Amino acid sequence: MPFTIRDKPGAARSVAYLMLAAAPANFVTCVVLPDSRPLGWVVTTVVVCMFLVVGGLMCLRRPEKVPHGWWLIAPFFATTLITTLNQLSNDASTGAQLFYLWPVLYSANFLSRRLMGVTLATISAAHASVAFRVLDTAHALSDWFSLTVAFGLTMVVVFSLRRRNDTLREVLETQALADPLTGVANRRCFDGEITRAVAWAHRTEGSLALLTVDIDYFKKINDTWGHAVGDQALQQVAAALRAVARGPDDVVARLGGDEFVMLLRTDRMEARRAADDVRTALDESSGLPGGTPGLSIGIALLPDHAGTAEELITASDTALYEAKAGGRGRTAVAHPPAPRQNVDRVPSSVEA
């Protein structure tokens, strides 16, 4: 997306450091060093420096209060500021040009490729406005071309490193949040997903179903056919769960051993149907030596059986144990929690 910011906290710190550093640099360049210091010029410089300090502190301390558009125009603001100082000081030297590195690096790190191109074009035009005014045409043309090419190559290199870093981070995040054997989410990922799902249910008054799935006699599968077949059974169950949980917000996770969960944003009837569909999908895919493994499934719903993520997990676990106690290979639905008795309405006979 052309108008999004990658790593907004990093962008905020980068802009904050720029503004806080630019304030004293601007004051020294415009007030301390010049021989002539008209009062109006001094007042204007002080106002600009105060703006830079306040803006820098705002970006550093309260970045959430800063409008989104500011992070997009920051490199153009910096380019304008640098060019203005170079124009006022008639400075087209290499040292003055190096200050353009900040908008180059900022855009390459935090902005889209389209905005990177616009930033480079802006810097090139800004420097040309100084170079062709201060230097002779031949030197200005050579200086302008060299700077544009050098900064363009810098952008390409930094952007390439940024994409490589993003790819590596995505791989690490996937490894950290996925079960390596089955490819579904792991317990760490599930904990975060159920917390977000419960918040969604409370906010929208929607229904949330948690299905806890356990492979019946999984130890017997391992002991009889070996752990390789046991791993295949786990993978096939995970595949069946994924085939059923097709919603964009549905979650399938392996909590450990032979226990899986499926989190669906649906009601009781659809949750029961999902449990049946999992068994059907598993029957269609099974090619294991011992045949299709049996599944015990416990279902709990929010708000019917629980009000929090912890209560939902507990209710689903309890329903799973009930399915196992009933002979395994079954689906059990949690019972509504017992109503709390109001002690103020306890009959007098009970009190006595």
TrEMBL record:
Keywords: Membrane, Transmembrane, Transmembrane helix
Pfam name, any one: GGDEF
Transmembrane segment boundaries: 15-34, 40-60, 69-88, 141-161
Gene3D superfamilies membership: 3.30.70.270
Name listed for the protein in its UniProt record: GGDEF domain-containing protein
GGDEF domain sequence ranges: 206-336
Region described as Disordered: 327-352
NCBIfam families registered for this protein in UniProt: GGDEF (TIGR00254)
